[in-house]
Amino acid sequence: MNFNELPEFDKEFKWLIKKHKSLSDDLEEFKRVITAEPLGNSKHFTVITKNDRCAMVKARLFCRYLKESSLRIIYAFHCNKRNVVMTGGDACPTVVLRVDFIEMYYQGSKENENRERINEYLNSL
Fold first, then answer.
1. Least confident window among 36-50, 53-67, 68-82, 104-118
2. What is the residue-wise DSSP string for 73-121?
3. Are 72 and 104 in contact (CB under 8 A)?
4. Helix (H) or strand (E) holding 54
5. What angle do CA 23, 26, 27 make, to 5 degrees?
6. Do strands 91-106 and 2-5 pair parallel, antiparallel, or not at all (unpaired)?
7. pTM of the model
8. In angstroms, rounded to a whole number, what is the distance separating the alpha carbons of residues 62 and 57?
9. Which of residues 35 and 95 earns the better pLDDT score?
């Protein structure tokens, strides 16, 4: 699976990691979870919107430095089926999985996700 980060996400991540030192490891663990279940496997994942190109998911990101509170992460999951031509001339269907991280925020400082950023992302596809 390929993981990409929007510049806004990267900026938010760098700001949050200054306060929460375990965030880098927590994000790696989160990546392992969504590699196994891209749309989530519990009540901590909500599909915000879904179209023929991608599914936008809002999830809880557990941070070891935060006790009762948690972080939220918004990402887009892309699943594209492509035919890859092998050396023998046969076409073999393959699935390309990609996750674009869009937003990360602390739940205590921001109530909801940035809908404008999500709409901009969807319009750019």
1. 68-82
2. EEEEEEEEEEEEE-TTS-EEEEEEEEEEEEEEEETTT-SS--HHHHHHH
3. yes
4. none
5. 85
6. parallel
7. 0.84
8. 15
9. 35
As a whole number of angstroms, the distance between CA 105 and CA 70 comes to 9
Give per-residue burial for 1-17: e unless 16+ CB within 10 Å, then b: eeeebbebbeebbeebe
pLDDT 10s digits, 14-54: 999 998 888 999 999 999 999 989 888 888 999 999 888 88
pLDDT tier, 94 (very low <50, low <70, confident <90, very high otherwise): low
Q: Which string of DSSP letters, residue by residue, matches 35-51? A: HH-TT-SSTTEEEEEE-
Cα torsion angle, 3, 115, 9, 65, sign:
negative
If one counts the domains in the chain, the total is: 1
Residue located via tokens 């509170």 = 69
pLDDT at 101: 96
Tell me the residue range of the domain where 65 lies.
2-124
